[in-house]
């Protein structure tokens, strides 16, 4: 065991998710990610249980830890009360804290998530703020979504939302005081620190790869992270 | 009746659902994608069931999607959740109902962690105090919004205008229930019925006259997978999961799919469009898809709310085949109208999937 394991074992997700694995493979049998990717949660739990520091470092730098969908189907089935999905969350946290996430294609996607979901939360108080979210990036949403985007406010009003107004209701404007409290919580509890790490490690990686980098979603590095899919199997 | 065998097992999966006085927290996905669904839920609680429910303007996201895309640390999410509990406490409520299934699972996970590690709860109290000056009590009762509809399913049935019965044949409609993974897979004992046979939607469907379909991939995830959908490169994960489910349910000819998780509804509805465009496959009859309703929308339909008032026009899969089977009265020309009947044009037709 070494420093990485010491850090991993302090993570509450690890504490809650890792009991004693008997390597039965039930988690892998039930796992949607294992159907889609070359992914085996049993092997991950076995690796962290084995305690080899160099193997852990390689895992933190790999695509493997980013394949899980966090559906937690594994938790229901494990006969020994392990939760591989929670262990994955601990591994992902450590990969971001150490900067190893930028060494894998899937890990590099964190910058896009931080700049969309992370920004939406702080700016609007919603995890997802879908006005303006176009089918060019989300074509799966279909022509009904184009119609909704064209008439976003009118449809919100038609369906009883309190769109961008003060007071209660769907899609209300969340008060500035609430957003200020959210930001203060992010400052005090480490989310801003994690955001900075995702930004800094990603910027350094972009520079080392000679890729264009700026604060938008449109730069070469972020776009490649969003679209690149060399390791989907 | 003696409580033995399955009766005894079933008893373990009953849960206490408060009778009245609810503090409601909204879902980011549901508000954006089905803004009429939550309004319908509140309308049913207030106007049909005459319950007291509080919708606080100051509550925010629980950060659930940020948490499950791993950009938000656990301590941050715990403290945001603590703030929601503080708002509940300040308003004098003890019964907490999230609209979102991801949130519901997250609240349960956090409460369990605090139970197992009281020192973490103490730390979160300090964080919240430092960041906001607020303090909080833990909820006495926390259930998902679909649990509330389950609890009052008989009262709703007694006031129903329509039933889940084919008006032409008299036969029960065949209904797929899709339960969001985080409703019961993490904490089966906190659900109605457990992870394998949750009753929260099947109980509703049967009470309202429908027949629940049991199909092989009934418990498979919808495929959202958080980062797996939000990143374009990963979406094969999402839509291969959707296809697996539809291929599995197709032989059973469902008339309707009902969901309790807002994300699942997006992917089971829009996924039918994706599969039709990519594979040329349509799963419903006559070139239409299988309508996918949220539990609030279904309840609204049953008690006789106008389908376009509750927002059924925002689904990609047209709901008209379902409305016609149930004998629901509706005005086709008003489907794509705004407030005060203002015309809003019409969405384009998909290439393969037929729509109204």
Quick recap:
The complex is a heterodimer of chains A (233) and B (356). Chain A is mostly helical and 233 residues long.
Tally of structural domains of chain B: 2
Q: What is the overall number of helices of chain B? A: 17
Top-tier CATH class of the largest domain in chain B: Alpha Beta
Can you write the helix and strand succession of chain A as a string? Answer: HHHHHHHHHHHHHH
- In the CATH hierarchy, the architecture of the largest domain in chain B is 3-Layer(aba) Sandwich
Can you lay out the helices and strands and say which pair or pack?
The complex is a heterodimer of chains A (233) and B (356).
Chain A: H1 3-10, H2 12-17, H3 26-30, H4 32-36, H5 41-50, H6 53-60, H7 73-77, H8 84-98, H9 110-124, H10 142-150, H11 152-158, H12 176-189, H13 191-209, H14 220-227
Chain B: H1 5-12, E1 22-25, H2 28-33, H3 35-48, E2 53-55, H4 64-68, H5 74-90, E3 95-98, H6 101-116, H7 118-132, E4 141-142, H8 145-151, H9 153-158, E5 174-178, H10 181-184, H11 202-207, E6 211-212, H12 227-230, H13 235-249, E7 256-259, H14 262-279, E8 292-294, H15 295-302, H16 307-310, H17 320-326
Parallel strand pairs in B: 1-2, 1-3, 3-4, 5-6, 5-7, 7-8
Helix pairs in contact in B: 3-15, 5-7, 6-7, 13-14
Tell me what you see in this structure.
Chain A is mainly alpha-helical. Chain A has two domains: 3-101, Orthogonal Bundle (Fumarate Reductase Iron-sulfur Protein, Chain B, domain 2); 107-227, no CATH class. Chain A is 58% helix and 0% strand. Chain A contains 14 helices and no strands. In chain A, helix 5 crosses helix 8 and helix 9 (110-124) runs antiparallel to helix 13. Chain B is α/β, with parallel strands linked by helices. Chain B has two domains: 19-145, Glutathione S-transferase Yfyf (Class Pi), Chain A, domain 2; 150-341, Rossmann fold (3-Layer(aba) Sandwich), CATH 3.40.50.11810. Helix content of chain B is 45%, strand content 8%. Chain B has 17 helices and eight strands. Chain B has helices at residues 5-12, 28-33, 35-48, 64-68, 74-90, 101-116, 118-132, 145-151, 153-158, 181-184, 202-207, 227-230, 235-249, 262-279, 295-302, 307-310, 320-326; strands spanning 22-25, 53-55, 95-98, 141-142, 174-178, 211-212, 256-259, 292-294. In chain B, the strands form two sheets. A four-stranded parallel beta sheet of chain B has the order 2-1-3-4, with helices on both faces. In chain B, strand 7, helix 14 and strand 8 (292-294) form a beta-alpha-beta unit. In chain B, helix 3 packs across helix 15, helix 5 (74-90) crosses helix 7 and helix 13 (235-249) crosses helix 14 (262-279). Chain B is globular and about 60 Å long. The model of chain B has no long low-confidence stretch (mean pLDDT 96). Classes of the chains: A mainly alpha (233), B alpha/beta (356). Chains A and B meet through helix 2, helix 4, helix 7, helix 8 and helix 9 of A and helix 2, helix 3, helix 4, helix 5 and helix 6 of B.
């Amino acid at each position: 065991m070494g420093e990485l394991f010491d850090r991993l074992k302090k993570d509450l997700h690890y504490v809650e998710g890792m009991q004693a694995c008997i390597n039965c493979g039930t988690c892998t049998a039930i796992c949607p990610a294992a159907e889609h990717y070359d992914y085996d949660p049993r092997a991950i739990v076995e690796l962290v249980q084995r305690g080899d520091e160099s193997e852990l470092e390689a895992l933190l730098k790999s695509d493997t830890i980013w394949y899980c969908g966090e559906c937690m189907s594994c938790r229901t089935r494990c006969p020994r009360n392990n939760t591989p999905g929670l262990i994955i969350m601990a591994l992902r946290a450590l990969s971001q804290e150490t900067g190893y996430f930028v060494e894998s294609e899937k890990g590099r996607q964190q910058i896009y998530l931080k700049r969309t979901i992370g920004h939406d939360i702080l700016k609007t108080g919603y995890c997802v703020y879908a006005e303006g979210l176009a089918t060019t990036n989300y074509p799966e949403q279909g022509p009904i979504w184009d119609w909704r985007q064209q008439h976003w406010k009118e449809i919100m009003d038609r369906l009883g939302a309190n769109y961008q107004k003060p007071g209660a209701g769907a899609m209300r404007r969340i008060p500035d005081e609430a957003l200020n409290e959210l930001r203060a919580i992010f400052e005090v509890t480490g989310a801003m620190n994690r955001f900075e790490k995702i930004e800094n490690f990603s910027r350094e990686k972009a520079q080392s790869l000679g890729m264009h980098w700026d604060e938008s979603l449109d730069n070469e590095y972020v776009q490649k992270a969003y679209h690149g899919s060399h390791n989907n199997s | 009746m003696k409580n033995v065998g399955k009766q005894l097992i079933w008893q373990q999966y009953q849960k206490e659902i408060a009778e009245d006085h609810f503090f409601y927290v909204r879902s980011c996905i549901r508000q954006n994608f089905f803004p009429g669904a939550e309004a319908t839920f509140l309308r049913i609680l207030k106007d049909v069931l005459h319950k007291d429910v509080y919708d606080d303007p100051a509550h925010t996201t629980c950060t659930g999607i940020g948490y499950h895309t791993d950009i938000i640390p656990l301590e941050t999410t715990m403290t945001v959740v603590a703030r929601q509990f503080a708002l509940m406490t300040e308003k004098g409520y003890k019964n907490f109902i999230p609209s979102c299934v991801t949130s519901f699972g997250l609240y349960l996970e956090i409460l369990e962690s605090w139970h197992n590690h009281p020192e973490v709860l103490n730390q979160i109290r300090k964080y919240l105090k430092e960041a906001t000056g607020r303090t909080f009590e833990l909820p006495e009762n926390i259930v998902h919004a679909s649990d509330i509809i389950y609890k009052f399913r008989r009262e709703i049935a007694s006031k129903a205008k329509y039933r889940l019965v084919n008006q032409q044949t008299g036969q029960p409609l065949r209904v797929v229930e899709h339960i969001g993974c985080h409703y019961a897979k993490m904490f089966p004992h906190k659900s109605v019925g457990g992870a394998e046979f949750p009753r929260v939607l099947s109980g509703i469907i049967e009470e309202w006259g429908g027949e629940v379909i049991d199909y092989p991939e009934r418990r498979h995830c919808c495929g959202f997978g958080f980062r797996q959908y939000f990143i374009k490169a990963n979406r094969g994960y999402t839509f291969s999961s959707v296809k697996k489910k539809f291929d599995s349910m197709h032989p059973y000819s469902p008339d309707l799919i009902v969901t309790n998780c807002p994300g699942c509804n997006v992917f089971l509805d829009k996924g039918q469009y994706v599969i039709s465009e990519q594979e040329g496959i349509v799963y419903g009859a006559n070139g239409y898809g299988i309508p996918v309703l949220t539990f609030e929308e279904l309840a609204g339909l049953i008690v006789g709310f106008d389908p376009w008032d509750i927002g059924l026009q925002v689904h990609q899969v047209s709901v008209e085949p379902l409305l016609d089977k149930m004998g629901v009265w509706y005005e086709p020309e008003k489907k794509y109208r705004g407030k005060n009947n203002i015309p809003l044009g019409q969405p384009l037709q998909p290439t393969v999937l037929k729509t109204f």
